[in-house]
């Protein structure tokens, strides 16, 4: 028998929704699949299909020799049924990774078992599937096609078998088994010339890293991808590799994930047709799949996810989940990633301060010891030694926070209360120096000149004048934006620090002299070295007496401090500082650049 298509002697002929058998014999059965009608013969069909044999027998009793069958539910539709009719007429059909799943499901649906002919379609497609499962690339293609016939593929366990096969290969070295794997560039894949043996690709590629399978699995729909990535994780894949694959998948479908990024790989091209609602649902699903372990995903990626979740108005639980993850590894974050734009309706501030505040609270709940949290101002040395491991990330976050404060301080809408709450989120003992805090305070005072004296005093309490470096102290002593009381405190602690240093020097010098006398190595009285040392000591003692007098004078002035600043006009002259003209700011010294935020100094004036 011949079964022809448009003049071919081996396939059916389709015309305006019809497929006609051209064997020379009149058709005695019509099979309707969707909008296509197949005019066929009963014998070839009933000799291969149990279902068609049953339907033809039932229809012949009612309609006579000619019958009409409706198979609208056949898996794969008219395209697959056309291949099946060719198979029934003895025409050799090509089984590939793209049609084997639909053919297998349709063969099962039509009951094309060995009972109705040796080497029937069920056996042939099952054998081919087993060959497919040994090949990475063709397994991916077969899994993609499962969506078209998903209920039937699930019943035949084709989906689960495909996923188990792929998960096992993803967790193994492809070089070890010479598995063919796809390149990361889809266009390059399509241009490859592949050798085909019985429809299965046989070319091989070597992987250079653990991400060789990322692109292939990103071609899957979200439900199939979720099942596959869960199976890969269950088979022992490292958590950081699983997380990297999830981020890779997101970047293909969420354009927002690729902003401010050097992500230029063509294989990562986003899908432009994805709606915002679909993007939001995708983001929420993927976030739930990311392993909840510190460090498996970089803080940069987590903060980018958080920013995307805010833009897409993701669920509160999704945003809270991301904030908690960021807080657990905030010490690994960078300042530029913390500058999340404010997405709220009020747009009170340029950046989302409340979000960073919550992240800091999550961080402190993990790293701050309960005993220290109960009394943050009184810390015993033993507690600090015991918590040395926790103190290092806290110090890193304190430096990060100081840089963040300097950035948000330039926002005119930044309220004093929010600025203070943010600054005290990290305890003062975590900062070796308060230069970063001072820099942020100076920027805030410069951008908010309308603050009252009491508010400026309140703001300056955030920094510890004893923990300013020499450069910061010198600048603060001449900073007219600071309250006068703070300037006096800076000067006082500088003098006190110098006095302590000199006293320590004398203590060491006396010990050295006593040591020499004890050993009998006393220099002669006329030795010039001894005379120079004696003169130097005398000069230092005189200088120390002068400093003590100046400190006593400062104490007296502090006791006489009044609310007006006129009483303090003598102080700049006492310490040798030139009083600046209030009408000119051009001579202001630059604020010392914070070494913690990695950004250029805002400067003063």
Helix content: 40-55%
Number of DSSP helical runs: 28
Which second-level CATH architecture of one domain applies? 2-Layer Sandwich
Distance between the termini: 97 Å
Q: Which secondary-structure class do the elements indicate? A: mainly alpha
Question: The CATH topology of one domain is what?
Answer: Potassium Channel Kv1.1, Chain A
Oligomer: single chain
User: How is the biggest beta sheet arranged?
Assistant: 5 strands, mixed
Question: How many whole angstroms does the radius of gyration measure?
Answer: 40 Å
Mean pLDDT metric:
76
Kindly state the number of beta strands: 7
The percentage of residues in β strands lies in under 5%
CATH homologous superfamily identity of one domain: Potassium Channel Kv1.1, Chain A
Reading off the top of the CATH hierarchy, the class of one domain is best stated as Alpha Beta
Basic shape: rod-shaped
Strand order of the largest sheet: 1-2-4-3-5
List low-pLDDT spans. Answer: 1-16, 183-207, 261-269, 373-389, 562-605
Features:
single chain, 605 residues, mainly alpha, Potassium Channel Kv1.1, Chain A, 7 strands, disordered N terminus, disordered C terminus, BTB/POZ domain-containing protein At5g03250 isoform X2, NPH3_dom, BTB/POZ_dom, ubl conjugation pathway
